[in-house]
């Protein structure tokens, strides 16, 4: 792994990275959903698939008038799976959607305001207890639906962190170690976490790509040892 050969602290570096990305790409307007219900369903459906497939599944749910937690919970699981077929892994995702729906109905009468009337740490623990909700999905729900500060770490964000040479210490650092880089060094601000994650994903998709990153035109090139050394991961 390439180490970052400079004295900047993360509290200095991360705001600079954010400003460079924001100035280059502008506001991203994430998450693409008109309601908290839609954001949550989208966060579950987007696991291991492209967003275009999620959009098709969301449209199918609307067309099937399956557009509430009560509707999701009441539909036979095999029928729900067929409705969301375009999202891939549809049998597993139907089970996950119904697990979430049942949790909200049984514990909060289907009311997300009641569910989200909690602090971020306690709500995150609760979300992780629901079948099919892993760390990334829980953080998607927290920052985009509940509007709570919990930084989302996905494959795109980790790629940029690694190439910037700020990978967490330790052997095979996990999700929490990567997340702590941001949460320990930025203000606990949900809109900031929202926009920063969206900008990192955009940058990873179109500039800091998995193969042959476009380092020559990268707005972070002078901050990035991978670009400086001409490494192509």
Automatic annotation (TrEMBL):
SUPFAM superfamilies: DNA-glycosylase (SSF48150)
Biological process annotations from GO: base-excision repair
Gene3D superfamilies: Helix-hairpin-Helix base-excision DNA repair enzymes (C-terminal) (1.10.1670.10), Hypothetical protein, domain 2 (1.10.340.30)
Name of the protein in question: DNA repair glycosylase MJ1434
GO terms of molecular function: 4 iron, 4 sulfur cluster binding; catalytic activity, acting on DNA; hydrolase activity; metal ion binding
Annotated PANTHER family: A/G-SPECIFIC ADENINE GLYCOSYLASE/ENDONUCLEASE III (PTHR10359), DNA REPAIR GLYCOSYLASE MJ1434-RELATED (PTHR10359:SF19)
UniProt-listed InterPro entries: DNA_glycosylase, HhH-GPD_domain, HhH_base_excis_C
Keyword 4Fe-4S in record: yes
A matching Pfam family: HhH-GPD
Record keywords: 4Fe-4S, Iron, Iron-sulfur, Metal-binding
Species: Geodia barretti
Domain HhH-GPD residues, every copy: 45-206
